[in-house]
Design brief:
Radius of gyration: 14 Å
Distance between the termini: 24 Å
Number of domains: 1
Structural class: alpha+beta
Number of helices: 3
Number of strands: 7
Strand order of the largest sheet: 1-4-5-6-7
Order of helices and strands: HHEEEEEHEE
C-alpha cells in the first residue's frame, strides 16, 4: 500500500530532525545526506540519490550537470544545504527541479541552522 504524501513528508522531516538533533550544525552537506539516507532506510523508505536531471530544450535532452540530492519514494524531492541562510535562489533551484522532474512536492533543509526548522521549506508545484 502506498504511503500518503502528507505522511511521507512527515517521515522525511522527522528523519531530518533526528539527524540534525544527533549531529548538530557545522558538518558538510555530504555527511548530512549520508546520515539522512541511513535514517530513511531505518524508517523503511526507499530513495534515490544524486539523480541526474536533464534539461529539454527545443526537443533536445541536454545533460547540463543538474542533480537532485534525493528523491524519496519516487514522490518527494529533498534538497539539502549547509549555508549561512537559505536564499530565494535555493527555493528557485528546488522549484526548477520540481518543474523538470517527476515530483510535485519538495523539501529544502539547511542543516547549518541551530534549529533545523528555521532552515526548512516545503514547496509544492
Amino acid at each position: 500500500m502506498a504511503i500518503e504524501l502528507q505522511d511521507l513528508t512527515h517521515e522525511i522531516i522527522g528523519g531530518a530532525l533526528e539527524v540534525h538533533k544527533t549531529l548538530g550544525p557545522g558538518l558538510l552537506e555530504t555527511a548530512y545526506e549520508q546520515c539522512l539516507c541511513h535514517e530513511l532506510s531505518l524508517r523503511g523508505l526507499s530513495f534515490q540519490r544524486e539523480i541526474p536531471l536533464p534539461v529539454t530544450y527545443r526537443g533536445v535532452k541536454l545533460d547540463c550537470g543538474y542533480r537532485m540530492d534525493m528523491v524519496v519514494e519516487n514522490s518527494v524531492v529533498v534538497e539539502l544545504k549547509c549555508v549561512d541562510v537559505l536564499l530565494a535562489v535555493h527555493e528557485a533551484q528546488l522549484l526548477t527541479y520540481l518543474k523538470l522532474g517527476c515530483c510535485k512536492v519538495g523539501l529544502l533543509f539547511n542543516f547549518n541552522e541551530a534549529k533545523l526548522m528555521d532552515g526548512f521549506r516545503r514547496l509544492i508545484l
